Structures
1.
Amino acid sequence: MIFKKSSHTAILVFAASGKKDAWRKGIKGGDVLFDTLTDQTVALASKTGLPYFVHTEKQQKGFDFGSRLSNSIQAVFEQGYDNVIAIGNDTPHLKLSHFKQAIGNLEQGVATIGPSQDGGFYLLGINKATFLKVENKENKESSFSKLPWKTSRLTCSLTDSFSNGLVLYKMLDKLIDLDASVDLRAILDYSLSLNEIILQLILLLVESDKSIASNSSVLYLIKDADVYYNKGSPCC
C-alpha cells in the first residue's frame, strides 16, 4: 500500500470490454489481451491502497470519447474526491511507479500527464478545481470534453490549456498505447519488460498477423509456453 485510504484521491480505470476494444482497434483475437490488460491495470490501482472505479461501456455516458471520459471523471468527483487519476487499459508498460508519481504530484497540487508516443496520453492526474476550470471554459470548443481526442494533438492541446489557466503540471515517462495491430510490434521493440502473460499474448497475436511478421526483422518464437525473442545481429 502506498497511500492511506483516507486520501482524497481516487483512481478511474476507463476502459471498454476486451471484445469491444479489440473490435474498435481492429485487432483480431485481441479480446483476451485487452481483458488481461484491464485486469493488470486494476491490480496496479488496487496496490496503491486508494479507492478505484472501473468504467466500461456499461458505466460510460456520452455521445463521443471526450464526453464519456469527462462524465466519468465528473462522476468520481461527485463521490466526494478532490483528485482523480484517470487511466486506460491499453498501456502494457504501465507500472506502479507511474501511479505513485501521479499521486505524489496531486498531493502537492500539481496535475500529471502520462504522454503516449502517438501524441495522446495514457494517464491524467487532475484535481477538481482544475478539471472544472478546463471543462467549463467560456469557449466550449476548447473545454476538456472538446479536446482533440484520438489525435496526435491531444497532449499539446491539454498542456496549452493548463498553461493558459496557470495550472502546474508534470509529465511522466512517454509510453506506447495499443491502438492498432501495428502497435503490437512497437510495444515489443520499446521494451520486453512486461507481465509474462501479456508478453505471450502479444507474441501470439504478432505471430498470427502475417502483415506484422512479414514487415519485421525480429523473430518471435513461441514453443512449449516458453518465449524466445531474437533481435538478430547487433550489426543490423
2.
Amino acid sequence: MNTPGTGGNGLPDLPPEWGRVVVPDDASALAQEAAQVRRELRERARLAARRRFGALRQPLVWLVVAVLITLAGLAAVTRPGPTATPAEGVSSSPAAPPAAPTGRPLPALDLVDTGQNPVPLRSLLPMMIILVDGCACPERVSEAAAAAPPQVNLVAVTGGRSAPSAPPGGSTGTRTLADPAGGLRSFLHLSPRPDAAVAVLVDRSGTVVRVLPQLGPIETYRADLTALAG
C-alpha cells in the first residue's frame, strides 16, 4: 500500500513536493548527479574563501605597509654614519700641553712700580719672583726676604694696575711690582690660588731655573736661592 508523498515507492516520510522518487538498483547510475553535487559544493567553498580573503585583504595590506615602514626606520637609525675626517691642515691629535717654563728664558716683560713707572723685569736679574695676586702669604714672603742673598733681588708681583706701597708682611729688601696684563701668569700657565703663592727663580742669564707652584718653607728652596748668587 502506497502512502502519500512516496509516489508508490514504499519510502515513507518524504515530502510530497519531491514528486516521484526512483531508487535505481545500480548506484553507479547516480555517479553523474553525485559529481555535479560535488562540483557545486567545491564552487561554494571557493566563493566563501574568496569572500573571506577579500574581507581580510585590505587590513593585511595596511599591516604589511606598517611593518615595512618600521623596518626602514630601524635600518636608518642603526646604520652607522660616515666617519668624520679631519679637515686638511687640521691635526686630529689633541693639543700638546704647554711647555714647562723651567729651562726657558724669562720673557721681556715690563711691569709697573708704585709710581706707575714701567720696570723691565729682566733688569732685576738674578731674582726670585713671588706672585702674590692670589695669596698675599706674608709669612712666606718674609721668610724668602730673610734668606735671600744680597745679590738676589726679591720681587713680589701683584695683579692690579698699580703695585702696593709696601710688600706683603712689610718685609724689607722686597720690591713690589704690578703685572696688569698678566704676562707672568700666561708664561707660567698657572692660575691664582687663594691659599698659595707661586715663586719663580731666575738666574743671571734670564733662564728660569725653578718654579714653585706652591711656595713652601724656606728649606724646600734654600739651595736654589743660594745658587742664584753664584
3.
Amino acid sequence: MKVLKQHIGKILGLLLGGLLYFPIGLLLGLGIGFFLDILLQKGGGTGPKKRKRQLPQPNDSTNFILSSLILAAAVVKSDGEVEELELSYIQKFLVEQFGQDNLQEYMGILSAALEQDWDMAKTCRQIYLSSSYETRLQMLYFLFGIANADYSIDQVEVDTIKRISLELDLPHSDFVSIKAMFYDEMDSHYKILELPPSASDAQLKAAYRKMVKKYHPDSLASLGKEFQKVGESKFKRLQEAYDTICEKRGLK
C-alpha cells in the first residue's frame, strides 16, 4: 500500500496518458504523474512557504521536450549500452535550457523511455504529425549532440539518427548539414551550407541567406523564448561555417 501511495500519481498519469496518442500520450501522462507524486508527497504544496509546481500542459513546448526525450532514448540505447556521458549531456542540456525546476520529472521520463522498445516508425510518425519542420530540425541537432557527448560518434548512432531523420520526413540535405556540424572535415563547412566546395561566391551568399532563415532561433518562437535559446547553438555553427569560408576566400 505504501508503494502504491508513493506512485499513485504516475499510475493516474499513465491512465490519463493512455487516452492520448501513444507513445507520447503515455509519456505525457507519466510526466504529469511525476508532478502529482511530488505534490502528494509534499501535502499538495499549498503552504505559504511552498512554491507551487506547475503541471505540464500538452502544448507545443511540452510535445517538443517529450518527443526529444523519446528519440534521445533511441540514440542512447543504439550502441547497446547506456553511457553516463550521454545521460550527463541530456541532463546538462535540460538544466541550461529550462532550469532545475522540472529536471527530476524530465529525467524520470527519459528513464521510462529507456526501458521501452518503441516502434520507431509509428513514434516518428506521431512526432511528425504533431511538430513543425523547424522543431524537428532542432530535435535532429539535439540527437547528434547526444551521440557526440563522448567526442566520438559511432556509426550505429549515425545510422539510428539517419533513420529517425527519414521517419521524421526531413530531407537528406538537412541530415547531412546538421551532421557536418559535429565533424571536423575538409568540406564540413560547405556541407553545413549545403554547398559543394566549387560553389561560386554568389552561390555561397545565397545559400547563407537561405540557411539563416532555416536555422535562425526565431524559427522556434512558437515554442516560447526558452526554446529560442535552444536554437542558438545550431545557428552559431552555421555562422562559424560561413565566416570560415569567407575568410579563406578573402570575402568580407
4.
Amino acid sequence: EPEFTDCSDKLVWLEGQENSFHCQAKGHPLPTVTCEKNNTIYKVEEKFTAMRNMSGEYICRATNFDTVTKPVTVSVEYEPKILSIVVQPSMPVLEGANITLTCDADAIPTPTYSWHPQTPHVTFLNNNRTIQIKEVTSAHEGFYICIAQNKHGIKTLQQKIVVDREVIETATNPALFVQDKNNRGDTTDAAFSKILALLLSSSLLYYFC
C-alpha cells in the first residue's frame, strides 16, 4: 500500500506566481501522485500559475496497486483591489447632515484600512472600513482617499464629497420668493417647483397656506 512521506496539509500560494504540488509517496511499485479539485487533476511537480479561484481543499492520491488519499488545503493570497466606496446619503449632502463613507476591498489576507485626510468630527467604524462625518459643513468638501493594504500590496480609491448649502426661503406678498446661495430670486411657479424639489430630496415636510 502506498504511503505519503512528504505532503503538507496546508499550502499558501501567491496569485500570479508559479507553483506546484510537492506531495511525495513511497511504495512498491513506486506510486504515482496526483492532486484533484472539482475534477481538475494536477500531477505532482507540474508547474502552473496560481489564481485566486484555486483556493480550497484538494484530494491528493498516491496510487500503485492500491490508493491512499490525503486532503490538502490551498490558500491563494493576493493584493488588495478596492471595489467601491459607498456614500450614504448620496451626493450632494445637505449641510449639517451626517454622512458615512464605506470602503469595500477584496484581498487575502484581509486588508487594513485607513483614510486621508482625517478631518474634524470623524468617527471610524468597522475596523476603519467606514468613516462617519457628523454635522458636515463646507469645510468637509473635497476628496477622501481610502487606503487598503496587506503584505502583498497597497491600493487607493478616492471619493469626492459635495456639500449642498441650505436654501433660505422667505414669503413675500403677493408672490412667494425663494433666495438661494447665489442670491438669485424666482417667483410663483418657478419658486414653488424649487421648494418642492428641495422637500423631496431632503425628506422634510412643510405646509403651505
